[in-house]
């Protein structure tokens, strides 16, 4: 079963270090206004009205589901080539490992992929990525909004509420989309030789299903799943926490440069959305910075998970082992080995988070959603 894939002792020490990040984040103090008075983030970051009827909330959930999926797909398309290179580095692909850790290795690896496989090589596995990211991002954003409303009725601390809502929505969205991510990673990892055509979704799916490591083939699609859940807690929680924090900061302390001037249209009678809109650059910066924090907090979990996901490509008969993956990473790179590709991760995650949150917030504005 998927639950048996993971030996918790194998990464206990690793997890402890990163989970220790959570209390520190929870203690971030609220920004103060120029007058020295603490700003009420709850007032500057309104959620959907708590007086919504069931029908209104259903419409709100459907709209956030759709625009969340659109935002996620747009962001992933922007960074797809970087994502391909990062996966090849994380999994120590034999043809591209020589570029990892070198100056301009990201661009050299990208150029090598382009010269051998063309533009399609840079986007290999992207169709599967879009099939995965739409439900992932849609469920993530929709469930975050719903959880934020629910938790807001019971938790007075805004930071704690945002962190818990982000962590929980991350767990839900990963559970929905993990098998698709497994297929996408395997497609990105495979590098055809001798002019052979790239593997298609159907053939890769069959390949994974038929691997004899598990009695039931479906379990092959959940290699590294428990470790993913471990990593998504800081990833989802920190990303939404920091995004909410920095957008609140932009609307308050730095409103004179980061927020749009209040005009008559924004406060039109009957319009639900009352908060000040941020300028485009401010939205992008807030999203990008939140991505840096989230990536740093969860990267070792992601790296080990990638190793487990491609384990079947090396030996289809063996089950994925977190302990073995961690030992391999440690033996080849020591502590720094758990951060191989992190620079690429930053290069990828900053525009990805920036575009994702930017598109999501602009579509919320278009649909008049808080």
TrEMBL record:
The record gives the membrane topology as: Multi-pass membrane protein
Q: Which PROSITE patterns match?
A: SOLCAR
Similarity comment: family membership: Belongs to the mitochondrial carrier (TC 2.A.29) family.
- Could you give one GO CC term from the UniProt record? mitochondrial inner membrane
Gene label? LEU5
Alphabetized, the UniProt keywords read: Membrane, Mitochondrion, Mitochondrion inner membrane, Repeat, Transmembrane, Transmembrane helix, Transport
Protein's UniProt keywords contain Cytoplasm:
no
Name the UniProt record assigns to this protein? Coenzyme A transporter
The UniProt entry, under SUPFAM superfamilies, shows: Mitochondrial carrier
The residue ranges crossing the membrane are 163-180, 224-243, 338-360
What InterPro entries does this protein map onto?
Answer: GDC-like, MCP, MCP_dom_sf, MCP_transmembrane
Biological process, per Gene Ontology: transmembrane transport
Instruction: State the Solcar repeat positions.
Output: 59-150, 157-249, 278-366
Compartments it resides in: Mitochondrion inner membrane
